[in-house]
Amino acid sequence: MATVEQLLAVLGRRGDAQASELATWLQVSRPTVTRLLAAAGDQLCRMGKGPATRYARTRPLPSLGTRLSLHRIDEAGAVHPDGELHLLAGGRHWLERVKGESELFEEQPPFAADMSPQGYAGRTFSLRYPELALSQRVADWTEDDCLVALALRGEDCVGDLILGDESLDRYLATPDTHSTPDDYPRLARASGQGHPGSSVGGEHPKFATRVKDRHVIVKFAGNDEGAAVSRWKDLLVTEHLALEAIRDAGHAAAPTRWLDAEGYRFLEVERFDRVGLRGRRGLLSLGAIDNAYLGVRGTWTQATLKLHEARFVSEEDARQSRWLDVFGQLIGNTDRHPGNLAFFTEGPKRFRLAPAYDMLPMMFAPVGTNLVEREYTPQPPNATTLDVWPDAARRALAYWERLTQEPALSAHFRERCAACAESLRAFIQTRRL
């Protein structure tokens, strides 16, 4: 007589199966399989409905069990049940949605990858929450460690989803506090010591706060001396002006403003995944979408072309992504990784390009306390970018010229920008586009 242990062993080897397949492999009748499936309880996950239903072995997380509730916060701040995330053996996940199509992910679901602590803010996560007993280095975490963090302390993550009832309770209990720019020096000092903030990633020093009804990420450069600090202060201004140039070109970009206080320079970047006091919008990075559905792992241009071919994004969004890719290259943004382009979620496998952010000439970024003077090399158009290259190049040239006239930038940095403007001007003339 077959046992539950034998059933689980078969699924451990096979991954998932229909009841008829299990009956064949175990050499038992369908009623026997039905009895075994019922007896297995939470050790199994039922995926789908009707004759096509498949079964998979689950994996438990300490104190969390084998499934986690998923909640969505709408733009008015109301909470809606979105589904359950079932944890499967082998690191897989079954997302059983309340509405719409449920999905099987071979690895971490895309929203979890973006929501997980990372970058500068992630460095202090374990210090802030020692009760979770997670490694102090986020880079050492397993995917299950990320799920523990999200399910227990994930009330303020990127996008509109909250995983786990405990994180939802923390969201509901969060007071409506806010800051003013006068608080920024204090928040900057606290950010490196475990100041609570969003899970928004990126390596540059930053903190998350709310100014009246605006949720902002505030980047900052320190109040000490040195060439590297001066360069980062320059770069914060260039980011503000780059996003301004993108908007002037007719593309959406995150609103920003910069200010100086107590020797610091701050750059406010408005969050477009937040609405009003408590509302949220669904958001996924290009990297999370690509990893979950395509596996292109290429440039913004290459990945969004495949997204359009798969009908995940519109033709216009793919074109705007190409424009941003070209503009970024021509202004020396060497940090155009897939986490720096994002899309609003409009349903399973349907996405809309979000405003641009993190756009600046990172070729000038210091390495530690050292300035590294890298060569600026504009790239010509290719068959895929030919339609957007002329306009992007014209806008990039205007941007470099704007930087040469910006009084908030250091004299040495303006000289470097003038050299880049001259190089791009000559490059455009040789292309005659």
Sum this structure up briefly.
The protein has helices at 4-14, 19-26, 30-40, 110-115, 119-122, 125-128, 143-153, 165-173, 184-191, 227-248, 286-293, 300-309, 315-330, 389-404, 411-431; strands spanning 16-18, 44-47, 54-57, 67-73, 79-87, 93-97, 103-105, 161-163, 206-211, 214-221, 256-261, 264-270, 274-275, 279-280, 283-285, 342-345, 351-353.
Please provide a written account of the structure.
This protein has 433 residues and is of the alpha+beta class. It has three domains: 4-57, Orthogonal Bundle (Arc Repressor Mutant, subunit A); 67-173, no CATH class; 279-431, Orthogonal Bundle (Phosphatidylinositol 3-kinase Catalytic Subunit, Chain A, Domain 5), CATH 1.10.1070. 38% of the residues lie in helices and 18% in strands. It has 15 helices and 17 strands. The protein has helices at residues 4-14, 19-26, 30-40, 110-115, 119-122, 125-128, 143-153, 165-173, 184-191, 227-248, 286-293, 300-309, 315-330, 389-404, 411-431; strands at residues 16-18, 44-47, 54-57, 67-73, 79-87, 93-97, 103-105, 161-163, 206-211, 214-221, 256-261, 264-270, 274-275, 279-280, 283-285, 342-345, 351-353. A five-stranded antiparallel β-sheet has the order 7-6-5-4-8. Helix 12 (300-309) packs antiparallel against helix 13. It is globular and about 85 Å long. It starts with a helix and ends with a helix. Mean pLDDT is 92; it is low at 194-202.
